[in-house]
Write a structure and sequence with these properties.
The protein is 57% helix and 5% strand. With 377 residues, the chain is mainly alpha-helical. It has one domain. A two-stranded antiparallel ribbon has the order 1-2. Helix 7 runs antiparallel to helix 9. It is globular.
């Protein structure tokens, strides 16, 4: 691979980038390109649905940018996590403030990644259209110095594997200080007992739905991140799900086909209408027991409530991204040279186990509340 055989040349360019001063002056054409990209980025970063669509639309135009497809699928999962907060189970386990804190944590991270990465994608696309490199404009979008030599290298080699790896590293480092280590989110989400419970219950699944070519049956593959607060583990996780996404050509094509056929709504109905429904099918206040098999709901049994994003959360106003560049030392680029690890992707047993735990926790909490109420009367 190019990034192995030529890594010494890349290291030289990365060292040069570390010492780079302020970006060069802009021409009138450059200013026009920047403004057009800023407008388009702001327009598509309104909410999880718009940014998820933007990633897929870009990938379909430029399939050599594998990262955009990966980002589309991860963004779908972020949307499902957002609507879970107003779905059947989590409102029974979390109070209103906790729901809002979790949503803002997910939304802020995804908003930041989009406003950093999408201009890079559009700038690459403009480079292809104009047939000239525009990487000198990257610093004007606040993009890390790390990405300039990486995009320069990609323009020369067209190595999709390499630029995907670079983008995974960049985006996880980008949100490290702005979200993961940000005191507000550390106190309300990452360091809370609640987040430990989420991790214990394996709620951090990333699911890739697809349709088999035979009988068009729905299938799921995926992976689980257990230590989300660890930068190194998030980067490794990104590499692993990328390997999973592109590991088998026919399955990859089926994932793309599913993504094209099923618009993202934020509801888990998108990939499992037999188990989920966008409307509440259970009567309010019904005294119920946990479903024995939530992954095998019978046709006459109420499905799990999973609303669309528009039913749950309005568009958010975000403050500007905090300034600063994470790339301060050559050691920060070490993850470029670590290998990928393949994962099996058999996520269904773990995912169904999670649904069973949610059913049990919800039932147990309601039973405890009723017991306390009876004792107080």
């Amino acid at each position: 691979m190019w990034w192995k055989s030529k890594h010494q040349s890349l290291k030289k360019q990365l060292k040069k980038a570390l010492k780079a001063d302020s970006p060069p002056a802009l021409s009138g054409k450059d200013k026009q390109i920047i403004r057009q990209i800023e407008i388009r980025t702001q327009e598509m970063n309104r909410n999880n649905v718009t940014r998820t669509k933007a990633y897929l639309d870009f990938y379909l135009r430029r399939p050599e940018i594998h990262w955009s497809l990966l980002a589309h699928l991860v963004s779908r999962n972020a949307g499902w996590n957002m609507t879970d907060l107003k779905g059947e189970h989590l409102p029974e386990l979390l109070n209103e403030k906790e729901q809002v804190d979790f949503f803002r944590f997910i939304e802020r991270g995804n908003w930041l990644i989009f406003q950093d990465a999408y201009p890079q994608l559009l700038l690459y696309e403009a480079s292809q259209t104009l047939q000239r490199s525009l990487t000198h404009l990257l610093p004007h979008f606040g993009v890390s110095k790390f990405m300039v030599p990486c995009w320069d290298a990609f323009l020369k080699t067209n190595d999709s594997f390499f630029i995907t790896k670079a983008l995974i590293i960049n985006e996880q480092n980008y949100i490290e200080s702005r979200v993961i280590q940000q005191p507000l989110y550390k106190e309300t989400v990452l360091d809370s007992i609640l987040f430990s419970l989420q991790d214990l219950m394996n709620l951090n699944h990333i699911l890739f739905p697809y349709l088999t070519s035979v009988q068009k049956q729905k299938r799921l593959i995926g992976h689980t991140v257990h230590h989300f607060s660890s930068l190194k583990e998030r980067i490794q996780f990104g590499k692993e799900i990328y390997s999973l996404l592109y590991g088998i050509k026919t399955r990859h094509e089926q994932i793309v086909q599913w993504a094209k056929e099923v618009p993202h709504s934020g509801s888990r109905v998108d990939y499992w209408p037999d188990a989920f429904q966008t409307l509440k099918e259970r009567p309010p206040g019904e005294d119920r027991h946990p479903r024995p098999n939530p992954c095998g709901i019978s046709p006459n049994e109420p499905r799990i409530f999973s609303p669309k994003l528009e039913q749950c959360w309005g568009d958010q106003h975000h403050p500007s991204a905090e300034p600063g560049d994470w790339f301060q030392h050559m050691n920060d680029a070490n993850e470029l040279y670590t290998p990928f690890e393949d994962v099996e992707g058999d996520i269904v047993p773990s995912y169904c186990d999670t649904l069973e735990k949610l059913e049990f926790f919800t039932f147990s909490k309601k039973a405890l509340i009723r017991k306390e109420e009876n004792q107080n009367t």
